[in-house]
From TrEMBL:
Quaternary structure annotation from Swiss-Prot or TrEMBL: Component of the translation initiation factor 2B (eIF2B) complex which is a heterodecamer of two sets of five different subunits: alpha, beta, gamma, delta and epsilon. Subunits alpha, beta and delta comprise a regulatory subcomplex and subunits epsilon and gamma comprise a catalytic subcomplex. Within the complex, the hexameric regulatory complex resides at the center, with the two heterodimeric catalytic subcomplexes bound on opposite sides.
Keyword field: Cytoplasm, Initiation factor, Protein biosynthesis
Name of this protein: Translation initiation factor eIF2B subunit delta
GO cellular component, as recorded: cytosol; eukaryotic translation initiation factor 2B complex
Keyword Protein biosynthesis: yes
The organism of origin for this protein: Talaromyces stipitatus (strain ATCC 10500 / CBS 375.48 / QM 6759 / NRRL 1006)
Length: 555
């Protein structure tokens, strides 16, 4: 029985000893020495309790309750001080991020050194943490300076050199005219574009169809084929969907070459006719009406108009006249041939310019018809104007202020006729259909014009001659003792023969600094240089162009 009591005694004493000491200590009154010791021991505890009670992020009012002198700050001053501290903190963080090169290297070395010191002092050895890029510990592991590229090794970049900017070959004055370059192939064309329109676009781009009237007629004929093969989709009407379908064809043609004024007027009239079709009309009937409208438009505005203009302009030609014309206008050619068929005797001087040389075809056609033709380039215009009596010009368009918008060089010809050195002015007559009239106003040839490829100025035209030359390998057999016996015919011809294989001086002009080429298609002739405009509605002064245009549009 004694053994269980002995075994339970030790736990009882172990649990009762602390209360005994506490009770004894509380019963005995503390001395002064003990009070001092207790006060000293409570002071650190109170400080620790105060630190624990303080929040981790103290309020701004506690930090800025008083300044360095202990004076209390007003709310405005406290707010100002907070902004200053925030700006300083952001600046410090920015400097730390920018100085990441030294910080990254110091972080790696400092972590390794701290691990060694911890091992010597007996503290826990921590594995050095790899500094992360953009973090606050290492900030950046790689240098961010301008001479270094990303990577831990900090591979230096080559010394930055100013890259030579490619020279702009566009003429600044006509900079607004440089847009999307002309289409060179049918690649990338919309699937809605008709094959006839695809072929027409390439022909217009390559100047196979060049004149304003020819482009207008070819466009309408192509649209006629588009309408014939058109089928109205289910759920829509012809009047609504056909206009959208034609827009794809027009967009393609405009990428090959900008539309002429006559093309724009013809397309506008065709769209107006499409929109006026009654939705209840059967599709076959509507398509037939549209094709008939196109035929009537070509016949009235182009074919019959040219005949009327040619007949009217022929009356202005008298026997013995010397007619000067420029480039290759179809209506001027028809006028001159009509006058020749009427038995009038006159000469024609054709002035031409590069790079299209349209006057060559005109001179060939007139000479084939039996006319006396003289051909010269535009630099010989002063010589051609000496004997001239009248000037006949074609037109790309007639503007609303009575100015002539035509092939570049036309203004020079008209000005030379009006300001001839002899003093007598030469009448300038313009042959133009009303379909080429526009209400646009042109003050110069800079705002509105067409830019062609500058490389066309470099292309060499094959030289041709009317009379044949003798064979250069054939020698002239003469009797001995006479002058020039056995002379080679090539002695005099060699100096006159041009080397066809010689490169053009402008070859590689894009790589030549400070060299720009400009190839514009049209110019503007002032109204005071034009005496008469012959149209299918009669002969009228340039000032009457807007009135006639309004009449023809309303009709």
């Amino acid at each position: 029985m004694s053994s269980p009591e002995q075994s339970q005694a030790p736990p009882a004493t172990a649990t009762q000893n602390p209360p005994a000491t506490n009770s004894s200590a509380s019963q005995t009154p503390p001395t002064d020495a003990q009070n001092g010791a207790n006060a000293k021991s409570k002071a650190p505890n109170q400080n620790q309790n105060q630190k624990q009670k303080q929040p981790q992020k103290p309020k701004a009012t506690d930090a800025t309750a008083a300044d360095g002198s202990g004076e209390k700050l007003s709310p405005a001053e406290m707010k100002k001080k907070q902004k200053a501290e925030k700006a300083a903190r952001r600046a410090r963080e920015k400097l730390e991020r920018e100085g990441g090169a030294a910080a990254g290297a110091g972080a790696a070395g400092g972590a390794q050194q701290g691990a060694q010191q911890g091992a010597v002092q007996g503290g826990p050895v921590q594995t050095p943490r790899r500094p992360q890029q953009g973090g606050r510990d290492g900030l950046a592991s790689t240098p961010r300076g301008p001479r270094f590229a990303g990577g831990a090794r900090g591979t230096p970049l080559p010394t930055p050199t100013e890259t030579k900017k490619k020279e702009d070959k566009n003429v600044a004055v006509f900079g607004h005219l440089y847009g999307i370059p002309r289409r060179s192939t049918i690649a990338g064309a919309a699937k809605e574009v008709h094959p006839a329109v695809l072929a027409l676009g390439l022909q217009i781009r390559d100047y196979v169809i060049c004149g304003s009237s020819a482009r207008c007629v070819a466009t309408l004929i192509a649209f006629k084929r588009v309408i014939e093969s058109y089928t109205t989709p289910i759920g829509t009407s012809l009047a609504r969907h056909l206009t959208t379908h034609l827009s794809h064809q027009i967009t393609y043609l405009s990428t090959c070459r900008p539309l002429s004024i006559s093309q724009g007027n013809a397309i506008r009239a065709l769209k107006l006719s499409i929109s006026s079709i009654d939705p209840s009309v059967p599709e076959a009937t509507a398509k037939t009406e549209l094709c008939e409208f196109i035929n009537n438009f070509i016949r009235e505005k182009i074919t019959v108009a040219d005949q009327v203009i040619a007949t009217s302009a022929t009356q202005k030609i008298q026997d013995g006249d010397v007619i000067v014309t420029f480039a290759g206008s179809s209506i001027v050619k028809q006028t001159l041939i009509t006058a020749h068929k009427q038995g009038k005797k006159f000469r024609v001087s054709v002035i031409d310019s590069r790079p299209l040389f349209e006057g060559k075809n005109l001179a060939r056609a007139l000479s084939s018809a039996g006319l006396d033709v003289q051909y010269s380039l535009i630099h010989g215009i002063s010589h051609a104007m000496k004997d001239a009596t009248k000037v006949f010009l074609g037109a790309h368009a007639m503007t609303g202020n009575g100015r002539l918008y035509s092939r570049v060089g036309t203004a020079l010809v008209a000005m030379s006729a009006k300001e001839r050195s002899g003093g007598a002015e030469i009448p300038v007559i313009v042959c133009c259909e009303t379909v080429k009239f526009t209400d646009r106003v042109a003050l110069d040839s800079i705002v509105v014009n067409e830019i062609a490829d500058a490389d066309e100025l470099i292309t060499k035209q094959p030289l041709s001659q009317v009379t044949g030359r003798p064979d250069p390998h054939k020698t002239v057999d003469e009797k001995p003792g006479k002058k020039g016996n056995n002379q080679n015919v090539t002695d005099g011809i060699a100096s006159l023969t041009l080397d066809q294989n010689a490169p053009s001086p402008l070859t590689g002009w894009k790589d030549t600094p400070n060299l720009q080429l400009l190839n514009i298609m049209h110019d503007v002739t002032p109204a005071e240089y034009v005496d008469m405009v012959v149209t299918e509605m009669g002969s009228l002064p340039p000032s009457a162009v807007p009135i006639v245009h309004r009449m023809s549009t309303n009709s």
